[in-house]
Model the fold of this input.
Amino acid sequence: MPRPLTPTERLAAADKDSTLEQIVARTGDWDRFLVEQAVYAFGLANDSFSANDLRNVLPELAQGFLGAAINSLRTAGILEHTGQMVPSTSGPTHGHRISVWRLSVKGLVIAEARRPRKAAA
Done:
């Protein structure tokens, strides 16, 4: 039975212009973790968002892991699809439709649990 693909491997399979070796050589696990954290933080600050919005705030290097980070958070149940699609603003995609996301109830519960509590007076 083959093992499931990692987010990096899924991204490499989807991106015909990059090989897995090129992606891994550009960044490591720590960078992928930071992109996931950035996507989560963006979700906390915005009711909904797409990869278009995130590309505007992430450095170019991080953008290669954006799809993998969104997919990882979706698979974990932290993000959910809004049912909306928008045209991509990324040149190489030629305006294909991309998903609009929001934090799920699970994502909001995690956010609440991470919020600092005020000390009782």
Observations:
- DSSP finds seven helices and three strands in the chain.
- Strands lie at 49-50, 79-87, 97-103.
- The chain has a mean pLDDT of 79.
- The first helix runs from residue 7 to 14.
